[in-house]
Design brief:
The chain folds into 2 domains: 148 residues, Alpha-Beta Complex (Aspartate Aminotransferase, domain 1), CATH 3.90.1150; 275 residues, Aspartate Aminotransferase, domain 2 (3-Layer(aba) Sandwich). Helices cover 37% and strands 16% of the residues.
Amino acid sequence: MKLDQSALNSFWMPFTGNRDFKQAPRIVVRAKGMYMYDDNGKEILDGSSGLFCSPLGHCRDEINAAVSAQMAELDYVAPFQTAHPLGFKFAERLAGMLPETINHVFFANSGSESVDTAMKIAYAYHYARGEGQRIRFASRERAYHGVNMGGVSLSGMIKNRQAFGPGVPGVVHMRHTWQSENRFTRGQAETGGKELADDLERIALNYGPDTIAACFVEPIAGSTGCLVPPKGYLERLREICDEHGILLIFDEVITGFGRTGKPFAADAFGVIPDIMTLAKALTNAALPMGAVAASDKVHDAIFNAAPEKAIELFHGYTYSAHPAACAAGLATMDLFEKENSFAAADSLSEYFLDGMFSLSDLPIVTDIRGYGLLAGFDLVPGDAPGMRGLEVQKALFHAGLNLKMTGDSGLLAPPFIAEKSHIDQIVERLRGVLGAI
């Protein structure tokens, strides 16, 4: 399918330099398994599972069939005061996978909506307990928590915030965990960085511990370039939150559903939050969906504070728990289980990280980080921030590799169905493009 200029001009693309892109569009027209295909029929290996959201590969017949069958039976029901069976079944299925104390699922439609929903749940939890003065949030530099106004306010990426007004008040940012002395560290750094968690203690004591509602962190900071927490860091955040009555919220939109080799990063690092935000791999990206998973403590406080028969949380979306999205999600969970996907990701991790760290000899690469089936690398900047990354992303697309670039940092997250030969292709194509610059 070839697009004329009128069609190109009509679509205002997200997170894209539209004027630059439309001079030489990179158009994908179909996909299957590990590969996508452009409008000239060129094969492109998907090294980032789309945007970390298709770990089972593209166009899975089982998911497509489940969605089709559901749409033929029930396409939609308003989720306010009515419901359909799959919403309950999917929530129950997820609760069985989540850490033991997290048993309640609220459905949204994206990671961004999940983050804003989690913020509202945190407000509501403290309000229900008579601590409505807890209106502040702690987040981190280099954080990405979606693009709705709550998530933008939590964001520690300046370009995501600077053009969009003051945002939600009361957000204070801790330092990020990347440190130059830990460059080219595989997995968690053994030393250096744990003390950065004490930023939360300083914030609490500076503003008053009883004013902090929640601490928001990505267990592994994703979009900013795979920042793996040093050993002891997440554990220390948990200690500080417990000491001061602050909720700990993990944004697992990227790390959830096997990316770390475990069901969730909370499992991989052995730190259980009070609330988790989910999306992306939730439906293998077949349909948009997000979710917030809350602990019994949070859920019960809100429910017990509401009068009998009253609405407990005045929040929701027109498409919360959409029937087709629930069908896609359940089919995705079936495939994860049938194909033992999380164990597959875990077993491929060492080979993948070996390949990624083999690129450390390239002069243009200034750092490589990785954990599970997620890795990031940094490049020597070009004439302006992000221009080198854009150049690399274009060149890799034409060399037959899709990956995520954020500024001058690249992110790889291959699907769990990848074989060692696919990892070899990813590394070979990265070396070819990066070595030529």
